[in-house]
From TrEMBL:
Identification of the protein by name: Pentatricopeptide repeat-containing protein
Lineage of the organism: Eukaryota, Viridiplantae, Streptophyta, Embryophyta, Tracheophyta
InterPro entries: PPR_rpt, TPR-like_helical_dom_sf
Record keywords: Repeat
Species annotation: Tetracentron sinense (Spur-leaf)
Tagged with keyword Repeat: yes
Bias (Pro residues): 33-49
Amino acid sequence: MENLKKVSPFRLSSLLRLEKDPNLALQLFRNPNPNPNPNPNPNPNPNPTQKPFRYSLLSYDLIITKLGHGKMFDQMEQILDQMKQETRFSPKEIIFCNVITFYGRSRLSELALRTFDRIPSFRCQRTVRSFNSLLNALLNCRELEKFREMYLDIDRYASPDACTYNILINACCSSSSLDNAWRLFDEMQSKGIQPNVVTFGTLISALCANAKLDEAFRLKDDMMRKFHVNPNAFIYTSLIKGLCKINELDLAFKLKAEMLDSKLKLDSAVYSTLISALFRAGKKGEVSNVLEEMSETGYKPDTVTYNAMISGFCKENDFESAFGVLNEMGKKGCKPDVISYNIIIAGFCKEGRLREASDLLEDMPRRECSPDVVSYRTLFDGLCDRMEFKEAAFILDEMVFKKYVPRIASVNKFVDGLCQEGNMDLLLKVLNSLAKVNVIDVDTWKMAITKVFKKAELSNTSELVDVLAMP
């Protein structure tokens, strides 16, 4: 029988690119040309003249990327060690940048640092590119002390570029150190490094988040006039959100029109922000105009847009209209998500309509949407606030069964209420459930135990333990 055509290194790269499953991709990489007729008692070296497979750099890049995306880090490290033995080529720095990024996203800072330190051992020179990847990974991991150490020692590794300063400025803005962010902005210019749209976007977003709209607009003007950098959609969105927070709707809509004139793509975040602001300002009648414009400009309302409307109606206690939006979503082929239902459950609980909130939570699976931990916490909180302790105990049992943990503040309120009522049977049952998820604090335990001792007249702690251990 004629042998099957062998997979070439070029063909392997093509196959790896097409394979979506990282496990199957790894099998293919490790054994690109399996023996179709394996010998049951093989010789350790049946064909000593057969040459080993000559993997290409692209194949290594592809498999490392797929394993990284799949968080198969042990296998990824094995492939890296194999690549290190290659003598036909030197790996490109981008491969290690990707590995560092994968570790950063998974909050594995030590492995990100280790990868950066190992780059020279692969006969690959470190540049500012891998240094920036490491800085960004450390920022994602919130390793701010190590982040600072690397920055102070930056000259040992590379000359900073605009990307370096963007990461540093982002770190300052994330920690509310706007003064330091401005100092870095001035420093990069003093070093001849031109700020780019990311630099301005980071600063403008931080200014808007801190209600410094005047400074944000001045910076927008400067970036266009002095630096000849045009604002992108992110900058406009940040400004619109900032304006909506302070109910400057006319200017927010003016910026939205500016985006359309600049041919910038508007996303659901912009429209949802405007819709929410209209509800807050008591102008829900204008929401239809926004939806009409979306249709005219080719933007379909998505779940985020509809959820903004649901939230607006619930805040007005117009639950009939909120359910009307749910029905409209189904007609438009936009399936409500768990947030859609959680918004209504929270609205019902706020108004004390606990039966309707409970009915909706029970009805969610029929509506093809399973309640999550927020659904249960919201209802449990509402029941505790209204001192509906029997129903709260029922919901608590469901939460414990699903391994959902209630909020400690509600737990304390729940136990305190049961102690005040003197319902020892329910209190003991609740304590037993709470012990399974370990969410009751020391002070609440003391209060409950004192009440149990006093009411049940238990003679010693061993009897108390027996009671608490009851199913």
